[in-house]
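ping. complex inputs:
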Amino acid sequence: MFAGLRKWWRSLSGQGEEPPRPPGDARLSAPEKHMIDLDMEPDDPFMAHLLEAQGVVEIGGLNLKSAALEKLRAEGVKVVVPLISQGELIGTLNLGSRRSEQEYSSDDHRLLASLATQAAPALRVAQLARQQQAEARERERIEQELRVARVIQETLLPKELPVLAGWKLQTHWRPAREVSGDFYDFISFPDGKLGLVIADVTDKGVPAAMVMATTRSILRTAAEQHQAPGEVLSRANSLLCPSMPLNMFVTVTYALLDPANGSLRYANAGHPAMLLRTAGEVVELRARGMPLGLFEEMEYEEKHAALAPGDFLLMYSDGLIEAHGPDGSMFGTERLKQKLGEPVQNERLVQSLLDDLSGFTGDGWEQEDDVTLVTLEHEDDGQDQAGEILGEFSLPSRPGNEREAMRLVEGMIAGLGFGLERVEKIKTAVAEATMNAMEHGNQYREGLPAHIRVRARPHELVIEIVDFGGGKEIPEAEHPDLEAKLAGLQSPRGWGLFLIRSMVDDLRTYSDSVHHTIELVFKR
Amino acid sequence: MTDEIFEARLRTKDGQAVIDLIGEINGQAERGLMDVYHSAERLNPGAVILNFSQVSYINSTGIALIVNLLARAMKSRLELRVYGLSPHYSEIFQITRLTDYLKVFPDEPSAVTNRP
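pong. complex structure:
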């Protein structure tokens, strides 16, 4: 509060009448007015005196040990009128001697006190307006810098993902408001190999974005000169070190994939270790190495992993694992590993992770850092895709026939070892999906049957339900909002898809010009 | 395949209205359920208790019927209690958050006395 006062303290000083002065006196000459630049310390006793006085103060007879008082006297001030707004001293009116050399009268005092009463709020308003203008200019400057940094960052991220037969790449980048230096990159080589980069520059804003741009270029250059990931990072570090600003560095994971055989060579410069989900476990792919830009002539350990069909690789930035929950705890690597180990289909994993992150951080989360994910999935080679067909049947589209679908499916899956509760979930999902097929896909026209096929794969049960709703836009289902339904703001119906999603481990939909297919997937 | 007949029967127990639900709760159950509920309201009971112990199937349209019933009960400030739900339908009541507004009891005596 007092800093504001110091900043704004500009005592208005003038003279009522010009006092007689000796020749050469450089003090005020009447009717001159000028500003006295006065900084009053909070513990200056003159400040307390002015606040208590609540009116005009003749300073000639004051006996206070006050630097401010001394300065005012030196400037020829005789009378000080405090300007007080909401109990706060925001300035003073300072007057010299009267021209007549008479003392200020009680009428003068009343007039000055009245003037101060009217001037104080106006001065306060002016002070606040100037303060707000200065703050607005500062905000605009920061916002402009953020926009520039964001544009740099977005420009550097790949516009398209590489397409590799048998492999699936996905990225997710959720920027924090304050731009940080996360980036990812893919480098395609003539021999078919693919370089994958994920990196995080310390610091934020334009400086981080500039270092990010430099690092990206240097990594690309180094990767074209050296194939071994350890050598790439070592070379990039040597190139970056001389120009790296003080207190900045870059963490990077660089991996080289051979899509032909699933071989993955990788090195790490202080970045969070990649996680590899295989059929049986989730492992951290660690490799030793210091962040880039800290010390010259560093060596980087190089490791190797083999990605089998079905394996799933996750590269991520610390914005994910260092996100804080409402209680201050961090999301953490262990939680991430645990989440990755859950029986969720690979294609749903990223969304599932993000849902989990949202649940962990809560609704009011102000994201502290970018959250960047790069995933690489070695798709199944198709040998097990078809699986064993346990049975298939068609039902006329007639209300109530979903129960027949439930009954028939229950019989088909009886030998698969699902427990009673899972069977109930499967039945509910089948009933709801069949109802949707008959009602929305086939408009309950009996000539258009719903077709149901039940397939057992080694790790999952897949139930396909096909209707004749292909070739048209399927409207996005409204998420049921119970409170809105109870208040009559939303139809009480609309639970079908919600129930299906709640019962299955995964849900896939396909359409062609004639048919619409929904696949209900249950992990075994 | 024809729908299994739905039936709702009203009785009173210690000042509460108990509605025994029998069969399947789907779109076909709407009329029967709402008629009996209106009769229950006219008894001016302390609470209306829905007995699900003889319900074999509830689909999403049936959930919508219960939401409708609940909205009506809330409007008239009448407490709705349920008992006799199978573990599967108990889970569905939780997933749909109906349990935020309905009191679920394991059996009739606890529902009537409002003591879980």
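Residues 1-30 of chain A have pLDDT under 50 and may be disordered.
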